[in-house]
Amino acid sequence: MSTTFWTVPTQNLKNLNKHAIIDLIRFTSGGISRVEIARRMGLTRAAVSAIVDDLMSLGLVRETEGSYPSGRRPIVLEINPDLGHVIGIDMGASHVMLILADFSGRQLHEIEVPLDINEGPQICLARVAELVDQLLKEAGMSLSQISAVGVGVPGPIVQKEGMVSGPPIMPGWDRYPIRDHLQELWQVPVSLNNDAELGAVGEWAYGAGRGEHNLAYIKVGTGIGAGLLLEGQIYRGSTGCAGEIGHITIDENGPLCTCG
Asked: Where is the HTH marR-type domain positioned along the sequence (predicted)?
């Protein structure tokens, strides 16, 4: 019986290593040396140096002096914070939060205000646009300095189309082109994701699930949702509804949910 061996193309493997090195640099506090990257990833120093040189030529990574108790300070790598700025927008059922950050993830300014998602996409997105203007003005920046915007919403996402599908607590939003609407407005790339999924990524990157490849993030608010990471990737299921746990009844005589 013959045996078939499958191999990963060299270019694909290099890209995988490149993304892994970027994550390692981004999430290592105080920076990390080439030698330490090679040790943690099981790569040769030459392979690491070649990838790092590519990243530095793109401006994604830069060298800096690391902190050390005594002796010569080592040269470490960090994400270049000056490459650009990003805005994160968390839209809940009754609030919206906006955060301005540099490319390294350092938060520069934040706004959080009430927002009723039941008012529908036109009113809510117009309000979000006003808040983005306010955020930038208070930070002394302009839209031209923003490289990308990330938006989280409490509903199932149709990734390819950049919209929500059948969101239980977002009446009037079904299949509204949120991503395209905002991209046309701001002329910058916009990423639309489920808020619980983004919460899972946040815990993986900075919180209790840091470094874990498989985790579940449970969000309890107006409804209950979960963000799932399987083998380091967001898992949405075939319909994009994985993690949509549903609602809970706190008061049987309370107000009727918007989903009926």
From this structure: 30-64
